[in-house]
Structures are given as C-alpha cells and as structure tokens.
Amino acid sequence: MYTEWYPSKGYNFNITNSTSYDQYYVHGREVFDVMRRITDDIFNTYVRRPGTIDPYYTEYCDGKSVTCNGMKQWGTVTLAQNGMNALQILQYYYGNNIEIVRTNRIQSIPESYPGTPLRIGSTGTSVRTIQRQLNRIARDYPSFGTVTVDGVYGQNTADVVKKFQKQFGLTVDGVVGRNTWYKISYIYVAVKDLAELTSEGEANTGEPVDGVYPGTSLREGSTGAAVEQVQFWLSELSEFDSSIPSVNVDGIFGPATTAAVRAFQERYGLTVDGIVGRDTWNTLYNQYNSIEEDLDSGGAGSYPGTPLRRGDRGESVRLVQFYLRVAATNYSTIPVIAVDGIFGGGTENAVRAFQQFFGLSVDGVVGQLTWNKLYEVYTDVTNDLMAPDQRPGTYPGSPLRQGDTGKAVREVQYYLYLLSAYYDSIPAIAFDGVFGPATTEAVRAYQQLFGLTVDGVVGPATWNSIYAQYQRLRTADGPALSFQLYRWPGEVFSLGSESRWVVYLQFLLQFIGFFYETVQGADLTGLYDPETQAGVESFQRTFGLPVTGVVDETVWNAMVIVYLSLAAGSPAIQTAAAEGEYPGFVLLLGSAGEPVRQLQTYMNDIAKRYCQGYFVPETGVYDEQMVKAVTEFQRGLGLTQTGVVDRATWDAIVDLWRTDQNAGLPG
Known about the structure:
By secondary structure, the protein is mostly helical. About 45% of the residues lie in helices and about 0% in strands.
C-alpha cells in the first residue's frame, strides 16, 4: 500500500482482493467481536526504524514450506511461550532498531498521482515530490543528472524526465503523466529498497542539531524559545497520537504544557514528572523529526517549493510562524504572532519586519531566500548562539582564544561542528560556549585546512572564513554523502563480545549476504552470538581467509572493503553518467558509486598526461588512497587541500580533464 506497487506496474488498483495476497473488506459484513476489538486496537499501529517516517517492511513467512530473512510464523509461538511480548518478538527477528508507533492520520486509500500531468510551468508539492525522487534515482543512474528541488517544473526538470523516460521505455515527452509518475515511484522504491529488509528508509533531511537540549530542565513556570520549541513539537505530535493533548505555542510552560509532557512521557516509557529534562527533550525531538516528512514539510528546514504569501494555509505556514516566533524572542523588532497555519496580516507584518532586519527584499512573501534565512536564524536562536538583536555570522569585535567563554564562542563551535561532517580532519566538538583545548585543536585544524595562520585563535580572517564555508556548504554544494566506514577499533571480536562495533559487523554480514548466497547474515543485536560467529566463518570461507570465526584487523578490513565494493556496484555502474556533471553532493572518505568512479577516471587521465600525480584504482570507492590523491590534485590546482571533493574541486578537475581532452596533448 505504501509503495503503490500495483499502480506502479500499470494496474488500476491497490488491492488484489485475492486471499493469497490480501483480504477484501465488505462493509456491514458480520465479523467476530474479537477481530473487531483487535482491529480497532492495532489499525493505526505500525513498525518503523527510528529516524525514518515510512512503515518498515516486516518480511514474513511460515518458516516451514517457505523460508525468508524475516519473521517465521512457527517460531513466534515458541518465543511467546518463553515470555516475550510482541515488541520483543519483532526485535528478535528484525533487530532492536525498530519501534512501534501510532498515528491518528487515517484516510482512505490515497492515489499519489496528482490527477493531471506535470509539465514545464507546473508548480507545487507534486513537482517537488518528483524532483526529490528523481534526485535519489540519479544516485543509481547518474546519467540522468539532478535537479533543484524547488517545486518548479522548469526545463532542467523536463530534461531529466526525458532521460528517465528513455531509459525505461516510456514515451519521451518530458511530461509526467500517470505512467511516468508511477514508473518514477516504482524505480524510487526499488533503489531505496523500501519493500525490503535492507530498506534505507525515508529519512528526514536538514540540520542535524536543530533539536539540541538547552542545557537546563524546563518545567512549569519556565518561559522562552526553548519552551516554544517543546510546545510546537507536542502540538505536532498530538495530531498523530490522540493520547497527547495539543497545546498552544506561547512560550509559557503552564499546566496544559505540563499535562501534555506527562502524557508524552507515559506514552514513550519515560519518567512521568512533567519536566522536560535531557531524555524527554531528545525523545520529543526524535519523535517529531520522524513524522516531519509526513507533514509535507519536506524535512527540517526544507523550502516547500513555492512562495508563501497572505491567504495561504497549511503546515508550511505553521513552520514559518513558528520560526518567526522563535526569532521574536531574540529580535525586538519582530512582532510575536500566533502559530495557527493561516497566513494573515499579522504573519505578513512579521515577515516584513524580519526581512527588513536581515536585509532581504521587504515584500512580506516567504520565498526561498527568506525561508533559508528564517531557518538559519531559528536554528541559531534555539541553539543559544546569538546575543539579543545580533545577526548570525557577525564577528564579535575581538579575537577568540582558549579560555574565552560566551555566545560568540558557542557560535563558532557550532559552525565547526557542522563543518566536521564534511571535513574529516576537523574534529567534532561540543558547542558549549567554553573555548577549551578541543576547540583550539578544531580551530587549528580548520586553519591548516584552509591555508590560514595556524594559531588556534579566531580572529577576523578565521571567523569570516568559517562562516563563509558554513554558508557555502549549506546552500551550494549539497550534503556530504558517504557509507558507514569505520576503521578497526583495535579489539578482536569473538563469541561473547558485545558492543556497538558488533552491531556494525552484523550489518556488514547482512549487507554482504544479500549479494553472496554463501555468506550468512546475522541479526543486529550487538551480541557476538553463535549466529554471528557462523556468519563470520561463512565470510572467511567465501573470501579465502582462515576460518576462525574471529574478527581481527585483517577480517575487519576485508569485510569493509567488500562492503564498499558492493555499495559501489549499484545499477549506476551499468549506466554512463553525464560527462563531467557535478553529482549534487560532496564526495569524501566512505563515498562510493559511479560519481567516485567517474572522478577516478578523470584523475587517472590527467595523471597519465602530466606523468605525475597519484594514480588510483577505478573501483568507485573513496578510500584513504583517494583522499591522498585528491589532496595532491588540490595542491596542484591551487585549491584548499581538504581531501574532500566539493563543487569547486570537482569543477577544477573536470575543467583540466576537458582541456587536455580537447588539446589532445601527448603523454
């Protein structure tokens, strides 16, 4: 139902009504009372992975005549007789990383197709959906190219649609009619494995730190932006869970907020005290973040695709109003408004005041520039980075160094924390407002990376550079995409070992097992049990290693290499990518796939001509050898030597490659 498998195959139904697959509902038909009670209890309940919003595909079979990697009918009875409850049984088969959730958003079977074809000039959520799905498909079919997810159907979107249609045997007209819509949906489901146990899930996007705990507990009598944040999350969650009462977003922690917090705590197994400490805060944020895509907001901070103006209604308007309310707690010229989802005169005046203060076009309309600045200000205020009426990125007036404290220190720590996700040489640090040795080390690493004076002091040049890099990576180069890549942690794993590293080993076995029938997978339990030992032995046997059932550094590295090689060997390998086109995301250690392979080909062609530089295996895997080679190219091209391929590095390498190709210079 979720993946619309039948419509995507050309059928005009979602249910077969065949008892081999599903059951047909006949309204008014007599049913057993016990079935009615069970249905009423579980109808709005489903399983998902934490941090995702789609139902998790819980593959199921009888375990006798048919076997599968998921739950077995005949095994569940024994588990239940041994005292396991429903969740524990599910976790036995699917790993501990699942949760059971309820939703109050019940509707009849939807049809995702908007009803009319999408073509050049179309706008709105449906266009944005297609653009987002095409960009994900392009990671496996990079020759399609990518589009800007803005909800506007322009020539670039039409060109990508035509490439998609040609690839999959559809009429090549650049128009998304019913057949093209559902074929895009089908391929999107396929590349994300949404109907498989290996599903990557429908995860949310956006800043990873917009829900950071404020540092002190919130309770009845508390006021301010952090209270508004909690109230907004609760008000959104209440739409999905009837046990949580809705609250007004007014920044005042009163009895109604206490009651809602207590209901939330009881629902999620927390200490029921009505106080928002760290555990309650983090659970609230994670639950809100998990449903945000369902609210058509496109993920944290994502522009809805079309400008918002007076007269508009809906969730995107609620988000704008919420961002404005949070901004108003720190900026005196921005009026406080209600969060009601209706873009009226008060909201328009607040938008104008915001635009005036931050130097934007003052038109009262929330376009992409205003939206982006709103979200930036919101994350800065909620993370307590800004002094009253201070604009983000404003140099504090004097250098920051070890021993300093305050909001300016916290702000630069925040930017460095986000940059550390892109640049491996910058260590991740806490943004606690205390300039200690860890912050000095991070500043020195940044200065070394970007060719500044390496003194660990944040003067004007370092400050402006850090803020500029943060802004550029947020808005221009796209996210940093890489596979899970962990170096050997320095310990040998064998029967009885238990840690998060064992979970990673079990994940590797599962992933490799889907490609090699001779490799046995293992449940993601974190315990090195006999099943995991058997899986390791099967891996060692398959790849010609001594069969010990023990994971030392050699076995660990072999598993990681096989994993990355398989990850790179997606359908993208079968399809030539658009020559020289930037993939839309940053490549770094752990990236894999056709964009990496493309880059390796360009680099090797250049190295052959100049008889210098690093030659790299064209494996499609961005390993440490690639980091060294990219660093050498950046050195030769006069770029900052990061070992990370952002848009500037990609374009410089491709431009040099094209120049040499056109010149036809001898080696």
